[in-house]
Amino acid sequence: MLITPADSPSSSTLAASAPSSSNAAIFDALRALTNLASFSEQARQIITYLAFAHIESYLWSRVSALAQAAMECILNLTQSPAAAAQMFFCVDADTAPAEDATSVLSPQSASDQADTFSGAHADKAAARTRLTLLFALTNSSTRGTALAATAALSQILAFEAGAASFLALASASPPSSAAGAKETASTNALDARTPTRRLLTLVADSAGIAASSAAHPDSGSSPEKGPDVEAQPDPDMLARAATALCAFVDAGGAAVRASVRNAGGLRLLESLVNMTVVEQMGLSDMVSDAIAALGPSKRS
Fold it and tell me: pLDDT grade, residue 84 (50/70/90)?
């Protein structure tokens, strides 16, 4: 689909506020790639191979509109299993391109291009760093960027290897590369909590659920007390965050589901399914399926 959210800035607004007139052209190029990536699997693979490094670099632009446009483009690219694997999977996966991304490129360089594509897929350290940074961007101060990052996360977690990659962030040693230094200094994406607990926190916050609930297991609250809604839910973020959590549960294996149960995810989901906003957004069935996959609650 075309990613053109209502709160995205226009190129004219960008040109008026940005420090460089070239930013408007970059913004338009990113939006063009975003829409092109919505058309076909082959387009997504080619864009990932040819332009991902450039697109990714704008995630750290000081111009928030460029960072948001880059994140929205990456969101569309993650619809491709092969592109998602190349960018974000840090564990082995059986994902292969549905069609050869090099078949429409220059025949003289097709072999080299295929080697590069495979090499990028195999770069687990870079993929781990990207996934960590993507997760950090779900808390971006720019709303459009946070929404796009959360939607991209939900698409990645819908793949078994994506769910396993996310879970593996808990045991990953801090990277020593320049990108790793940026990850630590700029995002502080992974603290003492596991990625699963932070995902539950993201869902709970978007639902307006109190920190005393099981959604925030670090608080040391009584397990008998269910989550209380103390703030207004953010429906757009909740829809994306809840989808990410349910995809994580659905695609993940026993280890993923155990991590969600141990972090209080079952109690959180049981609270979500009873919320009016969840029913209004048509998420009740999805949440109920995740509850069933996790097993019955031990609460009376």
Answer: very high
CATH number of 170's domain: 1.25.10
Query: 166 near 90, Cβ under 8 Å?
Result: no
Q: What are 101's two structure tokens? A: 């991304």
Cβ-contact 152, 78 below 8 angstroms: yes
pLDDT of residue 98: 38
DSSP bridge partners of 209? 229
Cα Rg, the chain, nearest whole Å: 20
Q: For residue 6, is pLDDT > 90?
A: no
Share of the chain above pLDDT 70, in %: 66
Instruction: Establish if 1 belongs to a structural domain.
Output: no
Q: Is residue 174 part of a domain?
A: yes
Give CA separation, 297 vs 23, 226, 274, 284, 293, in Å: 52, 12, 15, 17, 11
Last residue of one domain, picked from the residues 139, 165, 187: 187
Examine the pLDDT at 180 and tell me if it is beyond 90: no
Place of tokens 């391109």: 97
CA distances from 275 to 194, 217, 233, 240, 282 (A): 26, 20, 10, 16, 11
pTM of the predicted structure, to 2 decimals = 0.76
Residue 102 within any structural domain of the chain = no
DSSP-derived 3-state class of residue 38: coil
CA–CA dist 127, 121 (Å, integer): 8
> In terms of pLDDT, which residue wins out, 265 or 215?
265
CB-based contact 134:162 (threshold 8 Å): no
Judgement on whether residues 182 and 212 belong to the same structural domain of the protein: no
